[in-house]
Amino acid sequence: MKIGDVTLGGQLGEHPTCMIGSMFYKGHKVIKDHATAIFDKDEAMVQLRGMEAIARETGTCMIIDVVGESADALVKYCQFVADATESKHTPFLVDGLTDEIRIPAVKALVDAGLRDRLVYNSIEPKVKDETLDAIKACGIRHAVLLAFDSTMLLPSQKINLLQGWDDKAGIKEGLLSKAKRAGVEQCIIDVAVLDMPSIGIAARTIIEAREATGLPAGCAPSNAIFECAAIKNRGDDARVTSLVAASTFLAASGASFIMFGPIKNARPVTLATATADAFHAYAGRRIDKVKPASEKHPLFKLF
Q1: Non-local CB neighbours of 12 within 8 Å, separated by 6+ positions
Q2: Does domain 16-290 have CATH number 3.20.20.20?
Q3: Which of 1, 3, 2, 43 is nearest to 23 (CA)?
Q4: How far apart are CA 191 and CA 225, in angstroms?
Q5: Which of 39, 115, 214, 226 has the smallest count of CB within 10 Å of its CB?
Q6: Spatial distance between the Cα atoms of 46 and 44, rounded to a whole number of angstroms
Q7: What's the whole-model pTM score?
Q8: If DSSP states are collapsed to H, E and C, what string results for the chain?
Q9: Taking a C-beta distance cutoff of 8 angstroms, is the pair 96, 74 a contact?
C-alpha cells in the first residue's frame, strides 16, 4: 500500500517498518498556547528535521502524527507539517481528540489540496453513521482503523472487530465494512494496546490481522509504556529504553508501522527498528529469495 511517498506492508524484509512520530500532543513543549495554537516554529522544525534525518540515515519511511485539541489548531499544525517536510509527499495523520474536531479539520485540509497526504485517525467500532457520511462527503482516501473494544482483547476478537461477527444481539458490522461505507480507499490497522503487558498480544494480533485482511497493521505502544507506574518510577531512561525495546519487538514481529509517540524519541527508536528490519531483510534474501524493494532499505544503509 502506498500513501504519499510511503509504502507499507509487503513481505517481511521487503519494506522497512514505517515509523510514526507525534507532534503537538498535550505536553509537547513546542506549544506555547494550546487555545490559540501558538507554537515555537523553529523548535518544531528542529524536531521534524531530526526525524527526517534519522529516516534518511537508516532508510526508514516516516509519517507524522499531528495532534490537535481543536479543529482550527489541527488545521494549523497539519498545514505547518505539510509545508515544512522536505518531501512534499510525506503523509500525516489527522489526529484530533474527537470526530467533531477531526471532520472539520480534514474538510479544510482537503480543500487546501492535501487529500493525498492526510490519513484520518481514526475510525473506531463505535463510530456514528453521520461521521461515516461526513468522511465520505469530505472524500477522505486514507484512514486508520482502530480495532479497540475493552471487552474484545484477544487476536481472534480483534479480527471480529475488523470483519464483523454474530452475537446474541445480531450481526455486528466490522470496521472494514464501515470504512467501505465511508468511501475510504486505503486503510491501515491499529490493533490497539491496552497496557504495557498487552504489547505481546498486539504483536500476535498484527500478524493475524495482516494475514486475515492483507492490509498493513501496527500499533501504538508509547502511551501504555509512558503511563506504566513501574516504568515511571524508574525515570526517563527507563521509559525510552522500554519504548525502544517494545518498538524493536514489534518490528521484529512483523509490524507494518509503529506509532512510537513523541517525535523527540525518533532517533533511538528508529535506529533500533531499522536494525531489526535489516535482519529480516538479510534472512529473507538468503533463505526466502525475497529482495528488499529499494536500495535505500535499512539492510543497505546499516551494514
Answers
A1: 254, 280, 284, 290
A2: yes
A3: 43
A4: 16
A5: 214
A6: 5
A7: 0.97
A8: CEECCEECCCCCCCCCCEEEEEECCCCCCCEEECCCCEECHHHHHHHHHHHHHHHHHHCCCEEEEEEECCHHHHHHHHHHHHHHCCCCCCCEEEEECCHHHHHHHHHHHHHCCCCCCEEEEEECCCCCHHHHHHHHHHCCCEEEEECCECCECCHHHHHHHHHCEEECCEEECCHHHHHHHCCCCEEEEECCCCCHHHHHHHHHHHHHHHHHHCCCEEECCHHHHHCCHHHHCCCHHHHHHHHHHHHHHHHHHCCCEEEEEEHHHHHHHHHHHHHHHHHHHHHHHHHHCCCCCCCCCHHHHHC
A9: yes
Residue with cell 500500500: 1
179 close to 220: Cβ distance less than 8 angstroms: no
Per the CB < 8 A criterion, the answer to whether 256 and 188 are in contact is yes
State the cell numbers at 246: 517494545
Q: Alpha-carbon distance 70 to 109, whole Å? A: 14
Quick one: pLDDT at residue 168? 81
Question: In the 3-class helix/strand/coil scheme, how is 106-168 assigned residue by residue?
Answer: HHHHHHCCCCCCEEEEEECCCCCHHHHHHHHHHCCCEEEEECCECCECCHHHHHHHHHCEEEC
**Could you report the per-residue pLDDT of 128-144, keeping only the tens digit for each?**
999 999 999 999 999 99
> Which whole number is the average pLDDT over 241-260?
98
Return the residue matching grid coordinates 492535501.
Answer: 114
Nearest Cα residue to 294 out of 25, 90, 61: 61
Phi, psi of 159 (to 5 degrees): -65, -40
Matching residue, cell 507506574: 229
**For residue 95, what are the β-bridge partners?**
67
pLDDT 10s digits, 183-192 = 999 999 999 9
